[in-house]
Design goal:
By secondary structure, the chain is α+β, with helices and mostly antiparallel strands. Helix content is 23%, strand content 22%. The chain binds a DNA duplex through helix 4.
DNA sequence: TCCCATGTTGCTAA
DNA sequence: GTTAGCAACATGGG
């Protein structure tokens, strides 16, 4: 579910709600995971994002790294009341609670002195123009797999990879090493445009994504290819095709992505 | 019933 | 060393 724009949205909202506040209590509603009573009575000093990881820094120097995987959500609630269905973990502050909701239970929480980051550079808000083409110059793998590789770039997922390649006019199965200079420029600028716009839209609510306050994002209204197989391309009118690359559903326009 | 799913990891084989 | 493919994780929705 959550890719960079969704995690960035949560990061900003969470920062406003809990930085400087003391975590009073934690509760695990999933016996399989999450026994973090050591977090209690510590103050949150800052909140940041690394790729799709959300990082909560505490005043004892440790970091809680939250990865939402496919269906994880965080929801802030000021009032008392029952936790929503699929709530797996609860953090209680003096002024509200955070529900960690995850139907599929893939979400991971790790509590360490350092955060795990075998992540490549951040594409948001900007990426070094020379980096991508240099890293990709000898690679034969499909450019879409390259974009999804978190060690290459941190934070791009399946929806935004499809949208970025469509905006750049590049077919997703193209070998990375076949991308020419002008196409690298288009790719860079498409990464920049798509991610910045998606952050501005507070993410893509295609099925169940909601932000920290339960609101839908609006980028689902801006999608040009993702989920549009059989429908006309919004740029050239050809029918959008759904294929598979690296085992992931891949939407592209055979008319204007070459 | 079958297939799909916004993610990651680990294994196998080419 | 690369790379592609696939199962696994666990569950809901169409």
């Amino acid at each position: 579910m959550p890719e960079l724009p969704e995690v960035e949205t949560l990061c900003r909202q969470l920062g406003k709600a809990i930085v400087g506040k003391i975590l009073i209590k934690t509760q695990s509603l999933d016996e399989k995971l999450y026994h973090f009573s050591e977090l209690e009575q510590h103050k949150v000093t800052s909140v940041s994002r690394r790729g799709k990881n959300l990082l909560l820094f505490f005043d004892d120097g440790r970091v809680l790294t939250v990865h939402l995987r496919m269906t994880g959500r965080l929801l802030w609630q000021k009032e008392n009341g029952d936790p929503p269905k699929y709530t797996r973990f609860i953090m209680t502050f003096s002024h509200g609670r955070i529900f960690f909701i995850d139907p599929r239970r893939f979400m991971t929480l790790t509590w360490e002195r350092t955060f795990p980051a075998q992540c490549g550079p951040e594409p948001f808000p900007h990426l070094d123009p020379a980096y991508l083409s240099d890293r990709g110059k000898n690679r034969k793998s499909p450019v879409k797999s390259f974009l999804l590789d978190q060690a290459t770039i941190a934070g791009i997922g399946n929806i935004y990879a499809c949208e970025i390649l469509h905006l750049a006019g590049i077919a997703p199965m193209r070998p990375v090493c076949s991308i020419d200079g002008q196409q690298w420029q288009r790719l860079l600028s498409a990464i920049d445009d798509v991610l910045n716009k998606a952050v501005h839209c507070r993410g893509t609510s295609i099925s169940d994504w909601r932000d920290f306050h339960g609101q839908k994002g609006t980028f689902q209204n801006e999608l040009h290819v993702y989920g549009r197989d059989g429908l006309p391309c919004l740029r050239c009118g050809a029918a959008v095709v759904r294929g598979s690359i690296g085992g992931r559903g891949t939407y592209f326009c055979p008319g204007c992505q070459t």
